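Hi all, long-time lurker, first post. I run a small reading group and we've been trying to get comfortable going from sequence to structure in the token notation. Rather than ask abstract questions, I figured I'd post a concrete chain and ask someone more experienced to write out its structure so we can walk through it together at our next meeting. Sequence below, copied exactly:
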Amino acid sequence: MYASIDTNYELQEPLPEQGEFQPPAPPESASDETRSKATTAGWPFTAEEAAAKVKGESTRTIDLGEGIVMQLVRIPAGEYVDAAGVKQTVERPFWMARFETTNEQMRRFEPTFNSRREDRYGYQFGRLCYGMNGDEMAAVRVDWNKAQAFCRWLSKQTGKTFTLPTESQWEWACRAGSDSDFWFGNIGEDFTPYANLGDVRLIEYAANTTTGYYTTTALINNPNKYDDRVPRDRTFDDGVFLTNRYPRDEKGVMLATPMYQAERPEGFEGMPQPAKFKPNPWGLYDMHGNVWEWTSTETDTGGKIARGGSFYDRPKRCTTASRVDYRPYHKVFNVGFRVVCEE
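-- Answer (accepted) --
Happy to help. Here is the structure in token form:
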């Protein structure tokens, strides 16, 4: 008893009886409901049907000078249901770059352009990071404004109209008739023949530069959670770490992997490799992963939208629905672009 009040504040009321656990019902998906209502005749369609839709000339090559070219593929007009379940119409055919814009292509526009380097997360000891500036690697740290300036420069050089794709153009071209998470399948399926996504290769961030008396690098055995901290898909290995479509260092020496101590096949020093991953049915490479790609579409608040995911992102962030937005002046380590050209 305290202050004439006979109350035991430490006494706890008995817990109510626990009934059998009932898992919560999944919330209704507005997009699923919309998707079930939105339809369009003749979509989705197969890879064979996609190829048959391209009539006449299917490829073009743009000469940027000094032996550097840009390959374009023709994308037909059509209708599809987008990732939000909304019917979209691409009214006119257009041309799209087969690959993401590379560093050497950017340097035809801006000779001092530099995609810079990507930090290691392990023992660095003052040594340089992983190079992102190889000629045939996808250009990154290109803000939206500069990507638009490249398009204007390319238009002036060629007499044709180059722009960034709209979101509708990008998704239509990426899907190439598919209604799945990726043009080649769904989340959980093996993506390694088709895309450079955030998989087991991201362990290469945790590198030790002290090996060979500081002359080479090696992966850290059993890295701690601070060195090896990038979330990733641990099921698959696509064989590529950063943006290496043609894995070469900045001196032009081909690397079998992005690790600097990688073996180099005899006779292949400085020679580009063929494209690593398979193209979609319209001949486009790296529409999923590798680097995010700017579009000309913006959010209600002025953010510029990028699509497709990157080497740094797990599969769920690299689908046909995946999108991020940044301010037009942001230079992002895993964002690049590809261009489109009017018919």
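A couple of things your group might point at:
The chain has six helices and 15 strands.
The helical segments are 30-37, 47-52, 103-109, 144-158, 167-175, 211-214.
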